[in-house]
Amino acid sequence: MTSKHPETIALHAGWRADPTTGSVQPPIHQTTSFQFKNTGHASALFALEELGPIYTRIGNPTNDVLEQRLAALEGGAAALVLASGQAASAFAVQNLARVGDNIVSSTDLYGGTWNLFANTLKDQGIEVRFVDPADPQAFVRASDDRTRAWYAETLPNPKLEVFPIAEVAALGRPLGIPLIVDNTAAPILARPLVHGAAVVVYSTTKYLGGHGSAIGGAIIDGGTFDWSAHPDRQPALNTPDPSYHGAVWVEAVKPIGPVAYIIKARTTLLRDLGSSQSPFNAFLTLQGIETLPLRIARHSENAAKVADYLASRPEVARVIYPGHQSGRARERADTYLKGGYGGLVGFELEAGRDAGRRFIDALELHYHVANIGDARSLAIHPASTTHSQLTPEDQIKTGVTEGYVRLSVGLEHIDDILADIDRGLAAAGAASVAAE
Ligand code: PLP
Hints:
CATH architecture of the largest domain: 3-Layer(aba) Sandwich
Helix content: 25-40%
CATH superfamily of the largest domain: Type I PLP-dependent aspartate aminotransferase-like (Major domain)
Number of helices: 16
CATH topology of the largest domain: Aspartate Aminotransferase, domain 2
Number of strands: 12
Structural class: alpha/beta
Largest sheet: 7 strands, mixed
Bound molecules: pyridoxal-5'-phosphate
Order of helices and strands: HHHEHEHEHEHEEEHHHHHEHEHEEHEH
């Protein structure tokens, strides 16, 4: 099956039917290990002369279908699914950077990624230098000889200002620095690889699954970044790897294709750290992806109506939504998001933090959860939850103010979503009037 259309890819890529049973859905290969045909077969698999499942920590046929589907959807060469989006962000960096190395990252990040970068990777000897993504040149200025990658999110919440993917990717390529883009909030709408990103990261927990049933993550290797063009810049892929009998990954993987980055991640990091995705979760995520193109269009449609409605209400001081932006932010939104502005809407209530809490407590339809991208509408107050482990200064850098409320607009009927928001605004406004 070959198609360039996401609607078709989402249903067909990576699987047709089980050769033995004819099963239309990929089976859940709920097994730890895979029997070798003979000793020759076993050693060929371990030597990467032949690709195939060995042990589910490193690979599984159900996961393989998901990996093929994600690579096809994203226009990449190959993918690796992992236990969570956090594991995907960590592996994406650790695959290139070692002790003493650094990466440069946009400040506009999911709170968990911020913590991973600012604390855990730092403890492991990898420095993350944060820069303002509004200025692409800031990535160049913050880089030095030990910079191994640049990192950003396409549609970072809470700011919801789209990252200048092509501008930053084009600055990095001549220096041998790949751009890694977390596209969690904008699948289908944004195509980071088409705009020059080298690697895409997902929390599949969000829109890709859509049902809120399975935590998962993925890394997609675009296959277009020349890792060997600047060997000094990428020693992890260009020097003998003692953990895999001296393999030089860019050479060792040549017969398989332009997938040195992703093969190394699987055969070293996944082997050693073991953050594997369960095949059951891969199956659930595949179920979600089947309807992703339809869902993301409806999420975007509903979110646009929610943003317009909030903007019309006097209790709301500010609406944060790509479709309401102007100037350069809007230009970037229109350049990189096609077919909608996504399902996330932020807003600030006139009456600040307490009004934000009252708003959330009054909601009946929206779930109050630390998640985005579910089919159901979700709401949260980031300053007291997802971003609460950041310092107040770092909260401001990532765009989290005290009164900010984030909505992940779901697929319910728009009238019901707006009625619930009305309920929240009435609660927020009523108390503020009483306080005056
Ligand atoms: N990246 C983004 C943009 C996210 O929103 C999240 C989770 O909220 C993650 C990564 C981490 O993903 P997970 O929760 O699947 O580990």
